[in-house]
Design goal:
Blueprint lengths: L2 H29 L4 H9 L18 H14 L1 H22 L5 H21 L3 E2 L7 H4 L8 E5 L2 E11 L7 E8 L11 E7 L5 E4 L13 E11 L9 H8 L8 H19 L16 H27 L6 H29 L10 H9 L9 H13 L6
Parallel strand pairs: 1-4, 2-4
Antiparallel strand pairs: 2-3, 3-7, 4-5, 6-7
Helix pairs in contact: 1-3, 3-4, 3-8, 4-8, 8-9, 8-10, 8-11, 9-10, 10-11, 10-12
Length: 402
């Protein structure tokens, strides 16, 4: 995609966010309601096909371009950006990342046929894909154990059984990209046998349960999914056998796509603080002596430094993303993920303290930004703790050492 075309899509994301998403965000958060109207706007703009290659009718945005657009969406509505990521990540995994994986000719031809059908559902029917990842046993989502959800091969497809939780877009998606472990007659479950299947939301045996009433990201509708002998046809296999395991090992930046939402939240908190101190926030105080305060100016400077540090690492990491990255490149991705997730909340914390008591009222945006920002540290597979563990271990040990 050309730079002007990319810039225009980024400008479209800004217009949608500023003119439509921003005004709706408080009600979505207050009511814990999925941002359906925002998705209608994304569909009208062609954004459901944002990262689908142009030859299938999509807009053909690559990984780096998507990450920049996602951060812009996150600046205006975190819940929309976070859930939209689940859809776009599904399309990226099956397109750009799958193209970089090793496949036999027959396997690649079969994948080509299957993904063409998946992309038609998006482009022609406006289908939305979720990406339920987490399970009650968090070790699987962290990459430390096989997924507990299983898929057994049967004639014409797969029978899927298991549970997922924190399943964003629950009830709003048309299809759910479920990661599960292939159930074999002999042998123990193995992470190498992860299967990635698109489960139709109206399938028999597929259920949604639980109440999503949480601290932040309340509009993501991240309820629980249950799957009991759910049949998934072969043509709904999103990646070939072994594809997910290969991608997880060789395309690590695939797990960074939650990061831009929080990059956008950090930017939004900084913008709010400056506007608030300048008297430009509706419902806030008029312009006065606050912005002349050396203490306020120092706090804003600290926020700006953290924002620039996070953005610089973020931009560097997404520009380097690709298959089989060098060790330093992979470690920089961990560092970027950690920095953005932690600094987003820290910038929001500083914003609350700098703006003062009135900023905690729910009629102002900052209170929601703070709650949403706190959720970033909890999101697998790259939580800040996991990033720190990997940074320490991989800095001190080479592959194969123990």
């Amino acid at each position: 995609m050309t730079a002007p075309a990319q810039a225009e899509l980024l400008a479209t994301a800004c217009r949608l966010g500023r003119d439509k998403f921003l005004a709706r965000a408080p009600a979505y958060d207050r009511e814990g309601r999925f941002p359906t109207e925002n998705y209608a706007d994304l569909r009208d703009a062609g954004f459901l096909g944002l990262v689908i290659p142009a030859r299938y009718g999509g807009l053909g945005v690559d990984y780096k371009g998507y990450m920049e657009i996602s951060a812009e969406l996150g600046r205006w509505c975190g819940a929309t950006a976070l859930t939209f990521n689940m859809h776009c990540a599904t399309m990226l995994w099956s397109s750009q990342m799958a193209d970089d994986l090793e496949m036999a000719g027959e396997q690649r031809a079969l994948h080509e046929s299957r993904r063409a059908g998946i992309y038609r559902k998006v482009i022609e029917d406006g289908a939305i894909f979720a990406q339920p990842f987490s399970e009650p046993n968090s070790a699987a989502a962290a990459g430390r154990a096989p997924f507990g959800t299983t898929a057994r091969k049967v004639k014409g497809g797969w029978l899927v059984n298991g549970r997922k939780h924190f399943a964003s877009l629950a009830g709003a998606a048309d299809f759910y990209g479920v990661l599960c472990t292939e159930a074999k007659e002999n042998g123990e479950a193995d992470v190498k046998d992860t299967i990635y299947l698109a489960v139709d939301g109206v399938s028999e045996g597929f259920t949604i349960s639980g109440e999503w009433d949480v601290l932040g990201m309340r509009a993501t509708s991240s309820n629980n999914l249950g799957l009991v002998d759910v049949f998934v046809p072969d043509e709904h296999q999103l990646m070939p056998r072994g594809g997910y395991y290969q991608a997880a090992r060789n395309w690590p930046h695939m797990f960074m796509t939650l990061c831009p939402t929080y990059m956008g939240i950090a930017q939004a908190a900084f913008d709010f603080t400056c506007q608030y101190l300048r008297g430009e926030v509706e419902g806030g105080p008029p312009a006065g002596s606050a912005r002349h305060s050396p203490a306020k100016q120092l706090a804003v400077a600290e926020m700006r430094i953290k924002l620039e540090q996070a953005r610089a690492l973020f931009q560097c990491a997404i520009a380097e993303a690709g298959v089989n990255p060098a060790k330093d490149t992979r470690l920089r991705a961990y560092a970027a993920q950690y920095t953005v997730m932690e600094f987003a909340n820290d910038i929001c914390r500083l914003a609350l303290r700098t703006c003062g008591g009135r900023a905690i009222f729910r009629n102002l945006r900052l209170e929601q930004l703070y709650r949403d920002s706190r959720c970033g540290a909890l999101m697998l597979p790259w939580t800040p703790e996991i990033c720190m563990e990997r940074l320490g271990w991989e800095s001190l040990f080479e592959a194969g050492e123990s």
